[in-house]
Amino acid sequence: MKNFVLKGDLCWSRDPQHLESRKNGYLVCENGVSAGVYETLPEKYSAYPLLDYAGKLILPGFTDLHAHAPQYRYRALGMDLELLEWLDTHTFPQEALYQDTAHARKNYARFVEEMRKGPNTRGCIFGTIHRESTEILMELLEESGLAAMVGKVNMDRHSPDILREGTEESAEETIRWIQEVQGKYPHVTPILTPRFLPSCTDALLEKLGKIQKKFHIPVQSHLSENRSEVAWVQELFPQSKNYGDAYDHFGLFGGENCPTIMAHCVLSDDAEIALMKERGVFIAHCPESNTNLASGIAPVRRYLSEEIPMGLGSDIAGGTRCSLFYAMAEAIRVSKLRWRLVDDRLAPLTIPEAFYLATKGGGAFFGKVGSFEEGYLLDAFVLDDSRYDNIGEYTIAERLERAIYLSEDNEVCHKFVEGRQLF
Amino acid sequence: MKNFVLKGDLCWSRDPQHLESRKNGYLVCENGVSAGVYETLPEKYSAYPLLDYAGKLILPGFTDLHAHAPQYRYRALGMDLELLEWLDTHTFPQEALYQDTAHARKNYARFVEEMRKGPNTRGCIFGTIHRESTEILMELLEESGLAAMVGKVNMDRHSPDILREGTEESAEETIRWIQEVQGKYPHVTPILTPRFLPSCTDALLEKLGKIQKKFHIPVQSHLSENRSEVAWVQELFPQSKNYGDAYDHFGLFGGENCPTIMAHCVLSDDAEIALMKERGVFIAHCPESNTNLASGIAPVRRYLSEEIPMGLGSDIAGGTRCSLFYAMAEAIRVSKLRWRLVDDRLAPLTIPEAFYLATKGGGAFFGKVGSFEEGYLLDAFVLDDSRYDNIGEYTIAERLERAIYLSEDNEVCHKFVEGRQLF
């Protein structure tokens, strides 16, 4: 079904400050792309099949800008640790298990199913260092109908033997992986994924910079998440002005030909923020993770004001829940605490702002994604919010607020990615 | 069924620092009271019916020390406001609707059903100023099988006409209410409930102090939640040393014959904390609400160190979720942010501490409640945590951690209150 019409209570984001909504509206899909929202269905679309979801919310699918698929299995464990201890205790031993492709297939299937059934329609996802298992993850995501960028992780130092590559090996496996998967799937593509600076030698980063230039693929990594981590990066890259500058030295920090996502940015200083802005680096704001690992609270209001591109990340398993509804609630909550306790010049996030981040903000990393405006890829889901006892009484904006705080995955009753109906 | 045995993976709290657990253990119930936990079932209990929940977690029921039943209906709305504006905009108009007993019956039934199906087995709950509707709430709670203390609210100033009593009227209705409900229900009892100091004149508070002495019922209210509120109380009670001292002036702040719960205590100063400790006032820590309404983060580590009695509150609808699993997760999370951002002398809460607060800590307001130790009322629920892919791999303590972050109400598959099986 390439052309169809969705009917229901539509809500989408025009910009961070403005929600758009249309009660009992019509959203037209043509060839996987929005042909706009209408109060009355134009005659020219009247022959299209009409999917009538009257009384239900229809929202743009969410883009999870940062998640670790292999960590889904042990989510919500070891949350009493900070980042570096948590990596050593839980993450590295668990990720090492993905050398076994059978383990990978079984456990990645669970992660993909969790993502498939909830409100997220696409994501930027870390695998592990293992090429074959990462390819399995990509295959499973494509089969699920979701859209994603997926990274084979690079790590050649500061991790246990069972989860560390040789420098040459890491680069070679990455090239082989890119050659195997580039262009293979219509909706799942590779993204270069140095884990974070402490995991990669200068030599490896240099090779990755060259690989990026050669294959023109985007980049994802971590930036300025935790105090001990930032101090460690300063030790490891004494010549760099800041954490971001160290990535930049190797050509892995944005710019026109290197779309880049950096997760966290809790502790970025003025110079790093200026560099992100200059290079158009996307920030993946991961509020739940930053709280769980006691990293702190990113200055999201500042990033919005400076118009740095930004979306939300579940950061499974620093975060525990895939659904970006939860990330929106947490983003709002921690922004209130930051305002109250740290800096009252940075106002809390509003509902429209949090919604923007989960939809159009993060979606922009994939192009025209995350809105119902004409020309945007038709990612959408239908939410049955009747459990909250809403109907007939609340505005669509109020229903959105309630969904942010109350929704559960089983209330997502239909889902579309680029116009394909998943369920 | 007065005597029976529960079998499963048991976990309970000895004290804030120590979890107890027993895999494949036996919990014996005799006449609604725990007769202890056993690795092997003693011969003398062998004739009791055995309810075998092998592989599932069995935990003490949670005590929600602070919730507003009439606010359940509009939970997760107006979360962009602080306390006083939120009360005026949402709470007061909604609570006024409970003058209509049909509205009350319909909407209280929804709140009670939400509480019934989740992990909470008892709570201290605010109604509204309306005597008849409050009695309906008590009736519904008793019918549900839950245990509760319920308060008809007192308000004779600073609220709209539709939600304000005369001073005499408030006192008289309170007396009539107590006379009507005291001793009426085995598991639901009255608790005196001045809304908060700005809602009650000195004259009313004086009358309530006398009512408390006459009828020997406990007291619940709010304390030092929000900056504007605290400043307002200082204006209204210029003679008082602090917010708590103003309650105390009227005999409504703890002591041997006046068990008292105060919700929030975000901004309590040293003198107020000392007075709470002296009088044995229970704190209802409501982390989600304190974040949602941008009130701040209570210094829970300090309260634990000073051994002030304390439990958790959902604070529906400053909080959005009834389940105290969620309050536990939020309590841990905000304690990490407070430690990281405000005062690193107050260490974050641990899993055992948060679990203690939800069980034995808050349960203590009801007597021997919230543990499986011998002599404790048998409040318990069975949690099917198989969805998290745990079985055979994690310790009970680790499974508890995951349940705190991941559990959903529909995973509560059996529930017991004072030995009565609700489902």
From TrEMBL, chains A, B:
Keywords, comma-separated and alphabetical: Hydrolase, Metal-binding, Zinc
Any Pfam family the entry gives: Amidohydro_1
Cofactor(s) in the UniProt record: Zn(2+)
Record's keyword annotation contains Zinc: yes
Hydrolase keyword on record: yes
Residues annotated as domain Amidohydrolase-related: 58-421
InterPro entries: Amidohydro-rel, Metal-dep_hydrolase_composite, Metal_Hydrolase, Metallo-dep_hydrolases
Natural source organism: Anaerotignum lactatifermentans
Protein's name according to its UniProt entry: Amidohydrolase family protein
